[in-house]
Amino acid sequence: MEGWTSEAGKTTSTNGVSPEAIVQLQRLSIWDKLKKGDLHTITRQNVADLFAALDPDEKGEIRKEDLNVLRELQDVSFALTDDDIYALADDCDTDGSGNISVEELYKALTQGELAYTLVKKALGKQPKAVSSNSLELTKVIEFLTKEYETSSALWSLPQTLVLFACFVGLMSRRLNLTTAYDMQAGLLNEIEGEGPPYMHDHEWAIIHDVPTMWQWMDSSGISLHFKNADGDLDIFPYPGRVASYNQMIGGLELIKTEVTSPEPCEQSEALRSFYDTVTGQCHRSGVTEDSSEFLVYHLKLDYLHEKVQNLTRDRWVDQNTSVLDAHTLYYNAHLKAFTDCHVTFNFWETGLVKIIINMETFQADPYYNKPDIVMDAIFVAILLRMLYSESTELIPAIRSGFDGFIKYLEFWNLVDWVSIILGAVVIACWIEICFLVSGQLQESILMLPTTALDALVFENRTYLTPDHIQSVIPMADYEARIKDVHAISSEIAGKHLSLRLLVFWYAFVLMMKFFKAFQANPRLDIVIRTLTRSAVEIIHFLIVFSTIFFCFSSAAYVVFGKAIKGFKDQYQAMMMCWRILMGEFDVDSMELVDYYYTSIWIVCFQFLVLLILLNMLLAIIMDTYVAAKQEAGDPQEQLTIWTQIKDACYTVKETQGHIGLYKLLLELQDEDYPAHPAAVVTSKSLRRAFHKKMTKHQADYILRRTVDYIKSTENICDIGLSDTVRLLSVMKVNILKTVEDTTHILDLLSKGVKSAPQPQARYNPTNNRRNDDDDAGEHAMVPSNSHASAVQRALPKLPAYSGVVAPSAGGAVGSGGMRGASKSSPSAGGLSSASGAFGGGGGMGDLPGMDMVAGMLQDMQATLFAMQSQQNHFLDSVKKQMSDQKKYIEERDVWLEQRINAMERRCEKVERGNDKLLMCLQGVDFEAITTIPNQVESALYNAEIGGSSKKAVHDAMPIGAREKLDTSKRVEVKLRELSEKVDELVARGEETTQQRQLLWKIDLGIRELRQKGIQVQQPSAPASAAGRRGFRPGKLGQQDMSRAASKSSSAAEGSIIAPDAYHHLENVEEEAEEDLERRPLRQAAHAPVQAAAPPSTIRIGGIPSFAGGGPPAAAPAAPRSRSEGPARAARGERIPTPPEAQHPRPS
Question: Which of 821, 843, 841 has the alpha carbon at shortest distance from 832?
Fold first, then answer.
């Protein structure tokens, strides 16, 4: 909004409102009503007065920006907040034109957001004030949890989409179900369509026992597999082809499963002997084993028929056989696929022969096209990325202890791990299939002598006899090799079936992954929120539904199970009932079993289960859906998924380098060792809790986002049915109370009218007498409703003078009026008695006394008005002082915050400088530095100092000594500059608690630096040598040598210093060289380390740091006030180190 001040950074403008208009606005009575929350007492006149003050030009309309002036009024600040004024402006401008009329302003004040805010205050659900500097730890954890869940779900959405796309592509390319269907449909049509006789589902189908099975095998079975008759080679030129394009591998293998040693029947002896009079045993119970026979497609057709007939004659399949499986393997080069085919004859104990045709198709050469591996690599890469992401969360959770691990095992994390593990199993299964197909299967197929046998067939132009095959390969070896091929193909087919089932379940896992990703956006999360909110109701409903449903399925099983396949057992009966519920059933077949029971069952089932229970389930879901949609809020205010992704990208850029949210949550929620044990969180406490791994930017970011989160959640006021009942009860009480008060007032008025006296002659003060009855027509009489008029006049006045009118007003005063006043106000009893004394009955009394009473009442009224005016003036002055004080405090807080931030930045800069200096001094060899005085002594002793210049002496010194001495000077200058900067920093800063802590921290850092790198080391051997030699005047004495050694040892290394030191001290070296040329060498040797402190004490910023490790002899007293510390520091006095600085707590 133009000209407004808000959180978005908008400016404020009073739109040219004059000071007179502001004063007029300040005096309006509407603000008192707003303070009390009595919006119902606001009249249109109150709003008209406000509108007139906002519209001095009398245009009849005001702009939306004109309401901004209300923020500058003191009374308004106690009645309305800034948010209320913003909401008021929005409620006024409903049409979006920017112009506001009186009626719009009245409706906005009485029916807009303000009324809703009062309702929330009455219910105790108004938003609470939130401080951006300190927050509750629980709120911070709540925000971090919500932020982590939202960001995790949002970033998992594109990953899940890519994973699902790869999954669909791999499922289509690797399983190749379209090719499998086409190939299997061709083979199935050949198997079932070859006849007559046919296999099943045909009027010519004959298989119902073992002999008819052999009859089909000898006729249709051989003819569909083998086109080996004489002359068929011209029609079918390729041996072993089925359905023209499917090449049989080796031949047909008949696998029999039978019981080798039958056991006695579990019946009585009489029944066993009756069932089998020879052995008394059951044929189908006992140990089973498999045996095989082969029909090779290179043999002539006569030999194949002969072998089948021999098997029939030898009763190869008897009463002990349970399963006969005709196993073949086909290869289609056009489709690049193998098909493992099993035609299984199941001989059940009931006498029924169940025929099952089962085929499994798989690729013959999966990676013949090399680019196909790209999609597999993408799928594996996504799984590895998911594994890495989950491991980065699981490992810290395990490290945090058992509690962290338990908290990690929530539902959506389990979904992620299931997707990773199941995906890895799918990949492993596929790799195993590829190795079997490309390796063992192809190798075993190449072991078959197919090429040689086909060459004999083409050479002889007829199929072969067993002797021909025996000439190429022994028949037993050939059959063994075919058996190996079939065994490998069966293993591959089983693994391929397992792969398809794994893919089936993986599709549901990916669906759950999508549900997790959809949680990031309210528009997408509507389904999962509906399911989760209605889960409890649905579970309880399913208990009732399943009970009733199972009763109906049991009844159908009992009635129809003996005749209808769909009801033959409990499981199939339940599935059939579900199909009936969905509308798929055959009533005719049920009526053939029992017409009346079918009618009863169908009517009851459809009425109770279909019409009632199923619709109840839909009602539960729809009710929860509506509630979830309302909870999500207005769809126009919800973020779209692309907007949310765009904001998430900005968030990633803003939070670059931050500590991970999940790691923060683990350490904050650790029950044994929480990172932040305090209940209140500030920016400093967060950084201190994470050992300075957290930057100030991240700490401020977390607090700012937490405040936004709290405001967004508290602005959502969930007013439920109980709150509505409370409001209705309050309204009922208020209405009944208003009705009671109105009834009481009406009773008082009616009693006053009935007890009013007859009309009297109007009092004439000029002649001081009453009019006679004869003159009654010449004078105006008091009307009969004078009592009501007196009551109306008395209501807005004080009780002490209600019903009394001054004589100058020209009104009549009578005892009736006084009595009416006493009835209308409880405090008017004195006036009632006074009127009786003056008037007595119905007449007026002593008129001079009445004048005196009227005058006294007027004086009292004037006095009360004056007192009220003084009180209002005093209240205004108090309010103004409070407002000024509040404004001053706010400005001072802002100023202090700015100073503290500046102080923190400067202290951080000093800390970084100390760290750099410490890094530079890490390679100092102080033992080599202690030899500098000895070298200097030798140079000065051997040089001719008498008439030589400083430069000559300097040149006469050894190169190493000159470099060490120059470097010592440069380090001294650098330390002096650092001390001056710290002094300036202390002089500018204020003595607050945080600043004192920072200064103690700096002092400790410098003290540690002194102890590690620049502690003064007194030379022992060189000094003793100098003392023995006894320097003459003009040479360095013992004290001079000690000072030179102290100064040299307190400097950084020259040629011994690490190379990084030169980068930081280039400017200092140049200044030191110029100063050395200007001053004599003796003055440089005798210069103290620091002018304001002894050699063992280095003063930095007014705080002494003892290089020798010990305190001074007498420490000055600590500062007694907050302002004394900086003043003493500015004067150069030493301030003692507090105990907490001497013994700092471990961070």
Answer: 821
